[in-house]
Amino acid sequence: MSPITKPPVLDPVVNDFVVKFANVNGSGSASANSMFAKAIFRMGIPVSPRNIFPSNIQGLPTWYEVRISEDGYLGRRGGQVELMVSVNPQSMVDDVKEVCPGGYFFYDNSYPLDFKLIRDDVHYIGLPLTDITNTNFTDPRQRQLFKNIIYVGALAYLVGIEFSALESIVNDTFKAKPKLIPPNIDALQLGFDEAQAAFANPLPMQLKRLDKNKGKILLEGNAACGLGAVYGGATVVAWYPITPSTSVIEGFEKYAKKLRVDPETGKNNYALVQAEDELSAIGMVIGANWNGARSFTATSGPGVSLMNEFLGLAYFAEVPAVLIDVQRVGPSTGMPTRTQQSDITSAAYASHGDTKNVLLLPATPKECFELTAASFDIAERLQTPVIMLTDLDLGMNEHICDELVWDDEYQYDRGKTYSAEDLDQIERYGRYIDKDGDGITYRTIPGRHPEKGMFFTRGTSRNEYAVYTEKGEEYEQNMQRLLLKWKTAPTYLPTPIETNRSDLNEIGIIHFGTSMAATHEAIDRLTKTGRNVNDLRLLAFPFHGEVEKFIERHEQIFVVEQNRDGQMKSLLVNELQIDPKRLVSILHFNGDPISASNVYGMIDEKLADQNSNSSLTG
Amino acid sequence: MSFYKPSFRHPESPKNKLGFTKTPYEGPISTLCAGCGHDSISAAIVQAVWDLNVEPHRVAKMSGIGCSSKSPAYFLNKAHGFNSVHGRMPSVTTGANVANGELLYIGVSGDGDTASIGMGQFAHVVRRNLNMMYIVENNGCYGLTKGQDSATADAGSKSKKGKINPFGSIDLAALALDLGATFVARSFSGDREQLIPLMQAAMSHKGFALIDIVSPCVTFNNHVGSTKSYDYTRDHVSAGSVIDFVPVEQEITLDQLKGSTQQVDLFDGNSVRLSKLNDDYDPTSRRAAMAALMEHKANEKLLTGLIYVDPDAAEFHEVLNLNETPLNELEQPTLCPGSDLLSEINQSFR
After folding, report:
1. Residue range B212-240: average pLDDT?
2. How much is the pTM?
3. Which end of chain A is more exposed for a tag (fewer CB within 10 A), N or C?
């Protein structure tokens, strides 16, 4: 079926377009779609796929958006898509609207298309996917699965995916089950041939091999965190299942099973404990760290809320702890399968009393790996909870990043811990004596010395010798020391990354985490329109001195974040005593990953407003 | 309460097999109320650990919040301790124990800390069969907040202010049995003779060992009408067995096992020998143990002694298939796979 008037024809474009798949959740589409994106990656073309999925196991609509960008832009582009692969009748009404004028709507024409779905400016390309699978397969489950593979084969013809790239993925995927290789390749070929027979010409959007992915990998942030924890020496992992953090633990387990089983005894050099709730998970982490093991948990916003009391204990009793918070949409249960950066204030100030927690803010899977490994050093060095804030977009989507590296010369920093030999040299041990003047005191590990070093760890106030006290001056002295430690903290934290494109210091943009790619792309667009823009990407809290200087230096500061209330702005204002009016929030919080169009559009609008205001007043 | 505790000990004070007098097993003066049952329990812990010849620094004292949870500050001065948050001692102990199973873990909790706020964690530490002695200093009320009823207060028991408790009590021993606990005992803080061998058996047991100890609150719950007072407890206690803890080196002849005596061998070679008051009672039968508890309850009796033991169940380290070297002793070469393996892993991401 086709519209009456002819839709516009897109100019031919190579390696720069967006394809979106509309599927039914639980139909096995995820692996087929991932094969599509990975084949493009293997063709050396920058690609960024994103799952947009419901909080559901089977039946509801789910989407997979693949951005291809020769320029290497890996954030969401925003706006409509050039090609919609529609395999879900439930969502067709909305899916048609998302196609750009002149774009293509690929659908299963085994069934007639509802005339209400017809737009004059869209090309409809139908292939009888259901008929093809019914003819070629008898088993209902196979029909379902191979239908997905067949449309990938058809797309290979339509947009120019090298068939050998797809074949290589099938070979790798089913290495352990070689029987499955031929039928999958046959299904790909079937789709390719059917499309070739049906359509005389491929689409104007084409993929052409590049060489841009050398030294790159395609990886999910959560798997990178899990692997980073293995490399960082975590031995006790306690957790409670919660979307979108669960695959951090699955990642840890996968690599620990390969890398941490004693080859001689077959026994584990790690412990993975599924706790009864998040409170228990963080309690176990604190107990293990207290006993000198590196230990972490992974959770999401609701879990952080539940862990608040324990985080205050770890802060005040000065027990190391690592928590990976894969953020999702709040408040409350919110949208569990959508993304946000909205746990910033709740994590930074988690717990009652004057509590502050160290935050780490990775933006890529490589940083997830590196910062997770480093988080154990930081937690042990500072003897305090370290909360790493990633998000669903980073954690559960595959992202291109530089390959992971490890320096074998690098030694873990186990922080200030007295060994039995150290204790022999000491007259009287005091757990909370600030010997070095940096606010960080010396720990001991239980059971290591028969006479010295033992103390009672407690959440109640105590003096330098860990003896209970209610004396105001002793309490105050301890709180001041904790503040001194807080001021020492940035020394051990990753420094922010500043990119200066102009000495004019007109516009400075502060961003962090998954807003990075979209913000960088928006900055390129702003630069092209003659704006002078520098940016600073935060990697940690408490902030380094560079952050304040960056703000002071620029005439205009924008803070990009994915929440409603400008939580990072609040932190900057609160901790650095910045005039709130100096920081203009660029906020995106509808649950979709932020796009370059979002960032560019909002900044451009604010700048235009200012210009018109100043011309009125000036 | 007295404020001064002399550290001087007679030079010929008895020593245990490790050559220690009791001093390193003791603690500073308690700040609990004079006559508090909890202090008797602390004294029993000192005696039991000393008798068991465990080096004091190889013990970890774990607790939550409440009067009971303060008490680890008052015994085993040479051991590390962790006074954590309310009702969460089980999780902290789980993490600590998984990190190093070689220490002896003594958890001290109360009825509020275990049966109310900590009910969830209690249930799950039982299910995991974590190797620890878990003591509940059970007084049926919240002492530190001045005497409110707790969840172990019996229905009909009268509070100090004269209010009758309308709610049924939670029987922690029965609950633990139902949850699969592998060592369940009950005692009374006033029965030192029973308490010490029970503790020794609990500490020798491989797995989770609960001792639910009625420990009267002299300030808020020791009046007529309370079912957790000294007088009421003494009148209603019914020892199911007289317990004898038999260290591994003491040989037991078959003669000694005649009559109503039953011996249960524990994991570390020690044994408990029970002189039973009732010949039919078998503490290795979970069903019999539950029946005995319920029968005593129906007769308004408090069954004390070793109620149930399963010395062979797998404890948590075995379930986790942990290596022998404690996790907290592993060094970087064992923990970090290094760059060559990372290059291989990178290949799987292309």
Report:
1. 93
2. 0.96
3. C
